[in-house]
């Protein structure tokens, strides 16, 4: 990643190995201040803390939450949602635009509409809608099922906007029309020209004057993973020529006053503020032209795109963004105001669909580590008489490995590494030709990895790491086996290499002495995380603590509130995790507002159309046959049936013994 835009960012402070480890060292190592944006910290006990309003006065100990959940028989993995963070994100969004509106003498307002595709969980959508009431925020839907849910949820709220995106069939448009008749402020956005005919048809049938929006197919390019959301080849929106045709149709029906919103979608997770400026500038000019032509436009919807700084680097990088929320709001308001002022037209109500920026921070995925595999565990003395007890003469490649191990020094790290690599290759060739015993191969294996570990340790003392050995730390990293499914809980990590901040929940007052990649419990080689956030570059390993036998070690993944829950799948039939809504207590501390139990085994089996009602009887019949044939006692049969029935009703993930 030589051209990585993060390369100019200053690196983290390197703790001095000779000094005791401190909480500050952990803050620097895991970049908590950078990506946490005040919502997360570390307390004196070495535990991660959550600060829903970004102040230390209101602080929740995350390890204490995990222990409290365990006492309630809620084992990890678990998603903990902090509802107060949702409220704080909505207020920050409102305040940023309010400040920009005041600074730019803007003569209208701002409202966010939350795209429920970002997190369709009912409790989340209800909370966003409830917390957004004081700001007049609304909701955005992208499908008929989403619309049906929102129609019921927005009862008796005529002043709060509903924006309808996505492809629309006849019944979708009819539902929008009925919602209009019920008094909702609802705007279907025309994504393709055929939708206009359906809107006109149902408006005539139900005798309503609909509010209509149109999405503009921007020529301005997007950026990052979703750059194709904008531009001539974008999936949605009308070309300018089609918009003029739509304008003509509405004019012929004396319905220009119904065209009330113009919309664009410059992309998701826009990391470069220049792309935001270009898109808003183009959209503002489309608005101005249509307004001057006589359209009754009232709203300008800038779509989504407001990013989340997942790695904290503040750069033009796919997991980051080179602007702040305040800068984003200021640029949006300024550019719209400038275009409108130049054309002497009224300022529109500004709408944004910033779902990721609203939801990402409020959810944390917590899971336990089940065990670890280490390549530097092999211990040798380097002396053949000690390490080899056989009577056969050592093959030459094995002798060479002994020499490489014994001669490792600061000056010979590269030479010894090359010698060890060559000897290992020769051992494997001889074994595959039947010229080497399994015992010698095992000895060579121990020697090779022990040599690599000595070379790594020697390299840690060097001021400059030789290029040939840059990957050695990664090669020798541990694999920590973790009780979760990447495919269910972090699908973006697997599908698009999205990086999320990951760190231990506790023991942060201790020096982490291991480096590791994380493997989940699915039977899939892709079920792993081997890229981690960093202020300078993408880290290939994560610094972790030595596992203590019999003691739980918890890790957390942060900023997972956007998209992860709704995109997850059932690979290996690992379903939804437990979800817990945690709130700040008015008098200090925290309390659990809501618990949503995770999927049981029988529930995920039902998803795959297994007849759960037939599973237990089938096993019971087998037990009776085993009793008849003398392979099992009655007591054993009863124990098997109780076990099977209990597991069907149990958590789909791994649980502690006796749970």
Layout of helices and strands:
Elements: H1 23-30, H2 32-36, E1 40-42, E2 48-50, E3 60-61, H3 62-71, E4 78-82, H4 83-103, E5 110-115, H5 122-131, E6 138-141, H6 144-153, E7 161-164, H7 170-181, E8 185-190, H8 194-206, E9 212-215, H9 240-252, E10 259-263, H10 273-293, E11 299-301, H11 325-343, E12 349-352, H12 355-359, E13 363-373, H13 384-387, H14 396-406, H15 413-432, H16 438-459, H17 472-475, E14 478-482, H18 486-489, H19 491-495, E15 502-504, E16 514-519, E17 528-529, E18 542-544, E19 554-557, H20 564-567, E20 578-584, E21 590-596, H21 601-607, H22 612-628, H23 634-648
Number of helical regions: 23
Q: Helical percent range?
A: 25-40%
Low-confidence stretches: 7-14
Our measurement of the CA-to-CA distance between the termini, rounded to an integer number of angstroms, reads 46 Å
Average pLDDT, rounded to a whole number, is 91
State which percent range the strand residues make up.
5-15%
The helix-and-strand class reads alpha/beta
CATH architecture of the domain at 106-353: Alpha-Beta Barrel
Rg result: 30 Å
CATH superfamily of the domain at 106-353: Alanine racemase
In total, the number of strands is 21
The CATH class of the domain at 106-353 is identified as Alpha Beta
Which fold name fills CATH's third level, the topology of the domain at 106-353?
Answer: TIM Barrel
The profile of the biggest β sheet is: 10 strands, mixed
Q: Give the overall form.
A: globular
